Here is the input.
Amino acid sequence: EATIEVRALRKTYGPTVAVDDLSFTVAPGQVTGFVGPNGAGKSTTMRMIMGLDRPDGGSALIGGKPYRSLRAPLCRIGAMLDASAVHPARRARDHLRWLAQANGLPARRVDEVIDLAGLASAAGRRAGGFSLGMRQRLGIAAALLGDPPVLMFDEPVNGLDPEGITWIRALLRSLAAEGRAVLMSSHLMSELEGGADHLVVIGRGRLIADTAVGELLKAA
Ligand code: ADP
Ligand code: ADP
Here is the structure.
């Protein structure tokens, strides 16, 4: 199933408890907003989901399996965690071609994701000259390459202009409408207004709220 399941996840850095007994599920067919102030533990949680950081306790599963045991991981989960991860000398299209090739994905996907991410006019340019917003689009294109049922974006709205924010909202909505599980983090609740179906709110690594947006509006 297209889900992310986080169970009793825990991560400490020395005396800092970055993620503290955190449990939540990201359901298919929805955009789930992952909200909390800077330092709340969102990126650490997402890194652990992607197997980039080792939990001190608990587990994070993608379709029932840890990231590191996934076969064809790009076809299981696509993530944009750090928009500056691309080598500055690489041209956007070449980066995507390399990623596709390294993961055994068809070359035609490169042009498809360039279109999906709105990168057509910049695809031949070097990533080093990209604005943050363009780097976000490149990260989103990379995440979509394997056409995965689960998607995760860390602060994708950062560095985008209002038009870009409207665009990304529509993109995430359409990805969820296709039945995908979509997790998007933000340190601003307002960025998720009208964009998320479900909210997972954390503070100091701990769960504060896990609720459907519809329920929240009824209670207000
Ligand atoms: P968020 O993504 O919500 O802003 P982070 O997951 O980046 O939060 O950080 C959670 C906490 O863990 C913060 O106190 C942060 O300073 C700390 N932290 C994150 N990564 C590291 C690291 N590599 N080394 C030490 N502390 C870290
Ligand atoms: P490099 O540092 O060589 O560019 P990465 O750090 O980007 O490689 O990739 C490390 C691992 O993460 C690889 O196994 C790759 O399949 C996976 N990966 C890279 N980008 C993505 C993405 N956007 N979505 C999902 N997995 C990714």
In short: The chain has seven helices and nine strands. The pocket of adenosine-5'-diphosphate (ligand 2) is lined by residues 73-74, 77-79, 85, 103, 142-143 (CB under 6 Å). Strands lie at 4-13, 16-26, 30-35, 57-62, 77-80, 150-153, 181-186, 198-203, 206-212. Residues 162-177 form the longest helix (16 residues).
